[in-house]
Amino acid sequence: MGGLQKKKFESGAATNYITRNRARKKLQLSLPDFRRLCILKGIYPHEPKHKKKVNKGSTAPRTFYLLKDIRFLLHEPIVGKFREYKIFVRKLKKAYGKTEWSAVERLKENKPTYKLDHIVKERYPSFIDALRDIDDALCMCFLFSTFARTGKCHVQTIQLCRRLTVEWMNYVITSRALRKVFISIKGIYYQAEVMGQPITWLVPYQFAHDHPTDVDYRVMATFTELYTTLLGFVNFRLYLSLNLLYPPKIHDTDIFLVPVQKLSALSASLARVVTSTEEEEAQIDLFPTEDENMEMMEEKEKEKKLLEAQMKIFEGLKFFLNREVPRESLAFIIRCFGGEVSWDKSVSIGSTYEMMDETITHHIVDRPNVDKRYINRYYIQPQWVYDCVNAKMLVPVEDYFIGVTLPPHLSPFVEEREGDYVPPEKLKILALQRGESSGVDSLEEEEEEEEEEDEEEEDNDEEDQVEENKLKKMEEQRSQGKSLQVKVTPGKVKMENPVRLEQEEKAEEKRLAIMMMKKKEKYLYDKIMFGKKRKVREVSFLKSRNKYSLLWERLCSRRS
Amino acid sequence: MAAARRLKRVAASQPGFLTLKSNSTDLLSGRRKRVNKNKKKSWNKHSDINDVEEFLNDIRHQERTTGGLLAEKSDDSLFFLDVGQPLNDAQRDKPVEEEPVERKKRKGRVSRPLRIDLILQQDSLIPPPKDVLAYQQPNAKKLRRSAQRLEQLAAKGVVPRKQRQLLNRRPVERTTLKAVTEANNNPNRDYYDIWGQELKDLADPWYLQQTCKKRVQRPERLNEKPSTLPAVEVIAPGGSYNPEFFSHQALLKAAHEVEVVKQKEEDKIKRQLAVNKEDTATMETIFHEELEGLVEEEKEEEEELKDEEDVAVGAIVLAQKKTEKQRKKERALKIKEQRRMANRRMNNRQQQLFQLRSIKASIKQQDQKTKVNQIRRKAKQEAEKSQPRRLGKLKFQPQDMEVQLSGELAESLRQLKPEGSILKDRFKSLQKRNLIEPRERAKFKRRHKLKYVEKRAFKEIT
What we know:
- The structure holds two protein chains of two kinds.
- Helices cover 50% and strands 8% of the residues of chain A.
- Chain A is of the alpha/beta class.
- In chain A, the strands form three sheets. Chain A has a four-stranded parallel beta sheet, covered by helices on one side. A three-stranded antiparallel beta sheet of chain A has the order 3-4-5. In chain A, strands 1-2 form a two-stranded antiparallel sheet.
- In chain A, a hairpin with a 3-residue loop joins strand 3 and strand 4 (187-194).
- Chain B is built from 19 helices and no strands.
- Chain B has helices at residues 2-13, 24-29, 40-46, 50-66, 75-78, 89-93, 115-119, 132-135, 140-156, 161-168, 179-182, 205-210, 245-273, 283-291, 298-315, 324-352, 356-385, 422-432, 456-461.
- Chain B is elongated.
- At the A-B interface, helix 5, helix 8, helix 10, helix 11 and strand 5 of A face helix 11, helix 13 and helix 18 of B.
């Protein structure tokens, strides 16, 4: 056999992939430039299924890109800009070396730059695509805006990030889109719902932190470059959707260009495009579609109304922030839900009223004690605001007074399933939401109720308890010398509870079905039930430990 | 020709110039050709005016450089009397001036010109030549006339047309192109509605495609995300600044598990490297090892040797040639074997008819196995989608869990100490989602080894 023999590694997987260095040479770019290009265009390395085939027999760890991706990169116009920049740097170095200052000036004036608008449009062809990816962009922009302006990364980038984040926060305030907040040890997590998309982002604390050395700043800066462009366009579109002016201007002022500091005060409302008389929107009659019926429509209306009510929990309340609380975070949240907020003048600009104002309803303090106290306002710790937001209602203020041990701050991002441990604080809040009075008795009742609802099989512990109670009673009676009253009495009509009857029937059917199962199936069923029972046992164990050990533990941890 | 001859003559008259024709004997002998000095022709060639020329040159040189003949200069301008350091102030007050120019001395100011400037002054008697061309202007008169006319008109108030147009024209607003305004990270950059207007293609799509001006479409494959993980992963509820007891314990337990795994690995390595103390070599064991085989008795040695030889002999067997009988036998055996196997195979196939049920059962089992394997493989693939892939030389190192111990929990928001760095968290998240490959900082590698040389001073000491 001679002639056209099929050689190894010439077709198939081996030709679909290309190593990083080969790709770089094909594009004629340096390695940092290649990396930047890949990040900007969204080309990621792939791990092939059969590494040995692609690597032509060796198993050395290499970075592979798809060949078609690299071929697509060849058509990108900013590749030419990168090359121009490289030549610009070379010429500038020469001019510096020869101390030709006029040449240096001339070169600097004509520095090559590139724009990323077409890349954003290409990667996110529709607005909703961009909204889906805005999580990452927000986190990065918030992170960069907290950097110190030392010059390690461009100061302009930091300023741009600050401006974009302030614009975003103003949009969320105006559209009342905030839903959840969580204070963690890392930073503050926010979740907002914009155009049906839940968007989560993380804001670091404002304290200065030293930067870790093993983070590649160039990569982060490239990501930020792309994300600032994206976020700017998204902001524009969002402002447009709300009929607001972009770049944002403050309502009722004549200042043309509002500086970022004034906007970052977050205390003023934004100006709209149409400032003439507002027309009343006619209520559109909503007709149900074929799939839905009137019931579902009503439910949706109810939900909508509930949502609207939840967005206005702080309406009518006036807050004052003391100097030591995180101003921006609290101002953002309070304004998102309709409240008015102000702070001391020395903290930042934009404070609307002073501490001496009589109409302030809540004063947020984080110190052990306050010197002067006004009568008609509540002095509370900042966690109250966050907990109100998460509970979607005004939580009782008593637990948050100054000096009081705070209840734990629960995470709103956790969704408890059936049978999981639900902390008692959360149960209390659920009770409040349902409108029942918060008392210790009702709490116990609710616990029992929930247990019954969750599990069809009753707890053995509970049954034992009931029996024990009975025995206790009998013993008491015997000890008191009374004989047990056992005699024939006229029968009482037992009221048959239909609901209870139904439940009993269902339980009977279930029992029969279990008896009729085959051995194999029964074996599996037993296994599943064992697992469930284990969970229930754990939950009840935790609950029983709850009352005493919890208090003790919390005291210990707080004091230390 | 006449010019050439003149040149030759002039050259020949230069002192020390040797012509080709003349030979040394001619000059040295003293015999001279008789020349008629009365003719103009022979004046140039044979008259010696060098001494006069020298004298005149000298005078000209003096005039050029020092401004006049040295003989005519005064003594003061050429020499000065060096009397040394003045002893007291009174003597210093005497005007000891070298330069012809006297200047008033002011307190703290250097009013006297520098000596070097004076030396380099132009003081030759010969004035520099006048550049005649500079004074020559062909239309000087015309220009003078027109300038006068313009002055008269300006005095009257009439402005010529060209100037009027110049004044009317608005000044050009030059937007100085600064690279800062166009850069990507300009803080005041403008944004526009990028998704709003659907720009119509100004030109025909066919034309754009043929002239390679059409933008290449982005492949659909690139719109998928490389990982199914969400961009922002919220920390567990135990990571709250004021956590609930049990969730905090759960988080601590998770962190504890990680630590336990790490500890186990370390222990494993320690165990593998552990050495039994008794196995270390002592002087005694070394001594014994060295003496091994040296102090044995000879009998034992012989016996050992014999055994080896027997074994060796048994191994070598010479093969003998096969006879015809043996070959025929082998062939018959082979055929018999083949026939037996064929029969057996046929039998098997016939019997399989009765084994249908068990065959079906075994096929079912295999099917089930393959199905189970398929499901498992699919589940594994789905799980892998959310895991960080191996994209390069380094493996993905997940960061340490952010946990605050019970003793570190803050009492209030004011006293909260943030844990972990969000920058690092974002960087690791990018790596986890397969957007970038894990990298470590590039080390500084030297191309050539450093040479350490002792200084000579130290060499003497050491």
